[in-house]
Write a structure and sequence with these properties.
The chain is α/β, with parallel strands linked by helices. It folds into 2 domains: about 425 residues, ANL, N-terminal domain (Rossmann fold), CATH 3.40.50; about 130 residues, GMP Synthetase, Chain A, domain 3, CATH 3.30.300. About 30% of the residues lie in helices and about 20% in strands. It is built from 21 helices and 30 strands. A hairpin with a 7-residue loop joins strand 14 and strand 15. Helix 2 packs across helix 3 and helix 5 packs across helix 6. The radius of gyration is 24 Å and the shape is globular. The protein binds 5'-O-[(S)-ethoxy(hydroxy)phosphoryl]adenosine.
């Protein structure tokens, strides 16, 4: 569905010519763009600094350094700053486990636990600049570990606990983490997952790891390697209740977050401290308009950037009360989310189009059986939202009272870039459009030649000027950073997304322009999945593409050629699916695997991805011949018909 819209069928583009009522916002926006340094400098002052910066921005394209010379600490801004206020005894997290267990963690408790864990990390020898990997379920100890790490200037990298051995190992290897923090158990649909076992297997190939810290959730015994492994609870037992937060230069990395791109190796996006915090602070306020009495619930997993920015740093800096939920949306019951909303009186919900479409499938009755009157604002992120899902969200969940903020952003951008901003004045909403760029964000849509597109014309989304939330580089790979993001349109940030602007200047985000898939909002590289398939002994070559899926946005379709001596069978299909689950994780499992005798290739031997994609999504040749490809149209046509009939 999203794909069809992305392919240019903008059936949802409105024809109406209503006037945008928030002139003030436009003026504020224009001013912010004219002088980004003055603008961000003012906002930077809302954080607590140990020392103010000497220079707002040092821009040596494509490398930006914000608040140069300023000294700041992330855990101080998220936690300590509330200790001298009434918020000390306010709930930071209302946590629910999948099994129904509950915990309330106040800001004061968070402060104590962060300090104790920071002291524990110090005991293990962790120093400023060291990397630590966090492979943890959605429990309060994950934000605690992130904050403790930032307190002492260690650089954390969170690895989504749904990733498997291969994905975990490659991230630890690349970051050369000294410590891995995990838990004995995670839960997924009533099944317990032995995370420590996965860590044990991964660290066999990661020589950098000196210690594994294990948070004990269950009572049972699990193997602990003497000298290397230590229980979290033992580590903090006699730990000090206070560790002074390390004042860090604003451009000291806060974290590395690996994300999928167009090569097999995940990219480590490196985020700064001062710029990142400033940006997340501002956008949390503009977009979610957070208030002290809110019960705010971002349903993301902290393993993704959405959780980093809008479960941990954004809400905590504002002293907001968040719901944090460990489980999936329809377990143990399809109305489990609505029970949670009712129980805590959730006022702001931030989730994905996939979740909305899944809930929509269960019908209107379930949400109607619950009191959802506490809602005042609803948000979505991660993939294009189709107007039908938007309208259902608005009508049935928001009961036609709550604005919807469709927020466009990426792991690389650190925070939301394009979205309605209720705190600054709400534009008229159009279902399926993320409306306008936020202040300070100079966004544009360009054609292949680099010229601004006309209204209604599809093009590539770019950002013209740096912003404080922008990632600083790719870890240990500045060349790739330059090449992937800054070369297509020299000097401009290339997001890798298609977009179109309508006559009112509204932005419509149309999905990826590259080989990145969004499956249920999760970002996966087709080449990553191909590499996993090819690492199976039966597979010679593989080509992966997404096909439109009415719930998940995209589903994974794989075409493989087999090595000699191997035959196609349904058992092999199962084995290959299992293999991908083991290498990457269940989210990367192909929906369909087709055995073919050859893959469509150009004369130079490159797989014709557009052909693979068209066949996977059962699309017509007409859709692909218009798009640029290194092969000629004739070549593409021929490859298409051969591949299709294979
Ligand atoms: C897509 C998630 C349409 C987009 C925060 C982007 C969206 C990718 C939207 C980044 C939206 C995110 N409308 N598409 N509101 N939000 N995307 O790094 O293709 O996991 O490039 O960050 O998600 O995914 P990532």
């Amino acid at each position: 569905m999203a794909e069809r819209e992305a392919a240019g069928e903008l059936t949802n583009l409105p024809t109406e010519t209503r006037v945008w009522p928030i002139q003030n916002y436009l003026e504020y926006f224009q001013k912010s763009i004219r002088d980004i340094e003055a603008f961000w400098s003012q906002i930077g002052h809302e954080l607590v600094w140990n020392r103010l910066w000497d220079q707002v921005l040092e821009w040596k394209p494509p490398f930006a350094r914000w608040f140069v010379g300023g000294l700041v600490n992330a855990s101080y801004n998220a936690v300590d700053r509330h200790m001298s206020t009434w918020r000390k005894n306010k709930a930071a997290y209302l946590w629910e486990g999948e099994a129904g267990d509950r915990r309330t963690v106040t800001y004061g408790e968070l402060f104590r636990e962060v300090n104790r864990f920071a002291a524990g990390l110090r005991k293990l020898g962790v120093k400023q600049g060291d990397r630590i990997a966090l492979y943890m379920p959605m429990i309060p100890e994950l934000p605690i570990a992130m904050l403790a790490s930032s307190r002492i200037g260690a650089i954390f990298t969170v690895v989504f606990s749904g990733f498997s051995v291969g994905a975990l190992a490659s991230r630890i290897q690349d970051s050369e983490a000294r410590v891995v923090v995990t838990a004995d158990l995670g839960f997924r649909r009533g099944k317990s997952i032995n995370l420590k076992e996965i860590v044990d297997e991964a660290v066999q190939t990661t020589p950098s790891v000196e210690h594994v810290v294990v948070f004990r959730r269950a009572g049972g015994e699990i193997p602990m390697r003497q000298g290397r492994d230590i229980w979290w609870q033992d580590l903090v037992k006699d730990a000090s209740n206070f560790v002074a937060p390390e004042p860090l230069e604003a451009n000291h990395p806060l974290y590395i977050l690996y994300t999928s791109g167009t090569t097999g190796r995940p990219k480590g996006a490196v985020h700064s401290t001062g710029g990142y915090l400033t940006y997340v602070y501002a956008t949390q306020k503009w977009v979610f308009d957070v208030k002290d009495e809110d019960v705010y619930w971002c349903t993301a997993d902290i393993g993704w950037v959405t959780g980093h920015s809008y479960i941990v740093f954004g809400p905590l800096m504002h002293g907001v009360t968040s719901v944090m939920y460990e489980g999936v949306l329809d377990y143990p019951a399809p109305d489990h989310w609505w029970q949670i909303v009712e129980r805590y009186g959730v006022t702001v919900l931030y989730t994905t189009p996939t979740a909305i479409r899944t809930l929509m499938k269960f019908g209107d009755e379930l949400p109607r059986q619950h009191d959802l009157s506490s809602f005042r604002l609803l948000g979505t992120v991660g993939e294009p939202i189709n107007p039908a899902a938007w309208e259902w969200y608005y009508r049935v969940i928001g009961q036609e009272r709550c604005p919807i903020v469709d927020t466009w952003w990426q792991t690389e951008t650190g925070g939301i870039l394009i979205s309605p901003a209720p705190n600054l004045g709400l534009p008229l909403l159009k279902p399926g459009s993320a409306t306008y760029p936020l202040p300070g964000i100079d966004a544009d849509v360009l054609n292949e030649a680099g010229a601004t597109t006309a209204p209604g014309e599809k093009g590539y989304l770019v950002i013209r000027k740096p912003w404080p939330g922008m990632f600083m580089t790719l870890y240990k790979d500045p060349d790739r950073y330059r090449q992937v993001y800054w070369e297509k349109f020299p000097g401009l940030y290339y997001a890798g997304d298609y977009a179109v602007r309508d006559r009112d200047g509204y932005f419509w985000l149309l999905g990826r322009a590259d080989e990145v898939l969004k499956v249920a909002g999760h970002r996966l590289g087709t080449i990553e999945i191909e590499d996993a398939l090819v690492s199976h002994p039966a597979v010679a070559e593989a080509a992966v593409a997404g096909r439109p899926d009415t719930i998940k946005g995209e589903a994974i379709v794989a075409f493989v050629t087999l090595r000699q001596g191997h035959n196609s069978s349904s058992a092999l299909v199962e084995a290959l699916k299992q293999h991908v689950r083991k290498e990457i994780g269940p989210i990367a499992t192909p929906e369909e695997i087709h055995f073919v005798s050859s893959l469509p290739k150009t004369r130079s031997g490159k797989i014709m991805r557009r052909v693979v994609k068209a066949v996977a999504s059962n699309r017509d040749i007409g859709d692909i011949t218009t798009l640029e490809d290194e092969a000629s149209v004739e070549e593409v046509k021929q490859a298409f018909s051969e591949f299709k009939s294979a």
